[in-house]
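A student in our group prepared the protein record below, which I am reviewing. What it holds is a sequence and that sequence's fold in token form. My question to you is simply how this chain folds and whether the tokens agree. Do not assume that whoever made the record got everything right. I have pasted the whole thing underneath without changing anything:
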Amino acid sequence: MPHPLMSRTPRSRHRRWIGTAFTGLAAAALAVTGTAAGASAAPHAAASGAATGAAADVNNAKNPGFESGLSGWTCSAGAGSTVSSPVHGGTSALKATPSGTDQAKCSQTVAVKPNSTYTLSAYVQGSYVYLGASGTGTTDVSTWAPGATTWQQLKTTFTTGPSTTSVTVYTHGWYGQAAYFADDISVFGPDGGGNGDPGDPVPDAPTGLTAGAVTSSSVALSWNPAKYATGYHVYRDGAKVQAVTGTSATVTGLSPSTAYRFQVAATNAAGESAKSAEVTATTSPGGGNPGPSVPKHAVTGYWQNFNNGATVQKISEVSDQYDIIAVSFADATTTPGAITFNLDSAGLGGYTVAQFKADIKAKQAAGKNVILSVGGEKGTISVNDAASANNFANSAYALMQEYGFNGVDIDLENGINPTYMSQALRSLSQKAGSKLVITMAPQTIDMQSTQGGYFKTALNIKDILTVVNMQYYNSGSMLGCDGKVYSQGTVDFLTALACIQLEGGLDPSQVGIGVPASPRAAGGGYVSPSVVNSALDCLTKGTGCGSFKPAKTYPSLRGAMTWSTNWDAASGSAWSNGVGPHVHNLP
């Protein structure tokens, strides 16, 4: 698929196939699940947070863990079977394999009571796994996960109508995708009289809560597993701050040299346990890292370390409208996770390393940040275990010291492991100090759900993250935060997709709009500077919106990004001169 750089080079940036393929997928998702807009197709839009059931509530699903094979369940086109691995609980789980014409839908009719609220949940693995309920008599619901290699819980709620005595609950995958797995399905609420599984009791309070490693802004916690628990809630000073499925968590966003009190409660479909015994931990003093800070509203531009037909630039020639300059790209090494940087002196007209380093210092003296971008189309750098995370942090910090970079940009297009990339970036933060700049440039598909690896990584490092400049191009049509489908190249596409990040847990100061600098810079999705400015105004002030208007404004939105400073220069700096002053004059 064509990449942002129309004249491709071995290191050109790229937006993969799934953006265009998802055009049909997203539209079909709304139709197939048959649910109301905003309640289907995307986890962020699904109903959640309903009150837990009373003590008499039960799991009304029969054979919820598939311990009796497919008894009680019907799968379309014979697509379902049971397997002994992987399983979430017990000894069996559902495996269902979609085809090019079938979604592998497995369903069960469940007895329910009228005018009652139920919590529907399941643990799933695989690509594009859906969980839903139809025939509720009110609003049918569904939720979905874009893909995972480990078990993750899907959860939503529904209320039955005044004469509803049964509903159909279902799972399904997506056409032509790989097999998906489901286990421990629960329809928890008042007993509908269908002899469902009574379910587990409310779990006991967790024991053994311990505070581990601390930084100036985070505390690591661990505890013993609680019987019947399917998840845990972490409390800081009495307020719930995190929900996790494992027996450890890192609480972030803390202040240096401050004592905090922590407790943990166990949860399952039946409710939440009492809180654990309390532990206290004190964060370490804050570090210091000399260098410029990022302004409240900032413009980011990617600088090309190669010649692909755009204007060849030295760092010193990059427009002053750019507050963050992302040098593209770092190179992989033979050491897993480790990166290096090789200036393309020959391709850049004899630009020397000494000149490059001096230009970085000059930009920093002018209040700019120069960071190193890791990834791009050919940047197959994998951080997928503790060793590679350590290698990434050490090599990135070494490059910061050698060249003077202020931080890193994460633009990995070959997948991202949120656990170990988060670990790598936290380790880098501890080395570099509080002024480390961390940016990200995910594809639109990467930020459709908080369950995606990129979104998880961003939320995991929220306390040290500078900005996520999602790339609103080369992606086809996508779902907005209202559950509707929007086409790229429009103000609605920019605002409705930004809304997902803004309402999904990122601070507005950590959200930026990434667009091509010119039509030549991307295969699709270019918008004029005036459209970018309208989107910025819509999100920050509520003016200039298209058909989509957010429910509230986000005055602290960080700003905008472009690929690239070189393509911008090739177009007479029309993008930076049009968008830059507008960003810097935001409220």
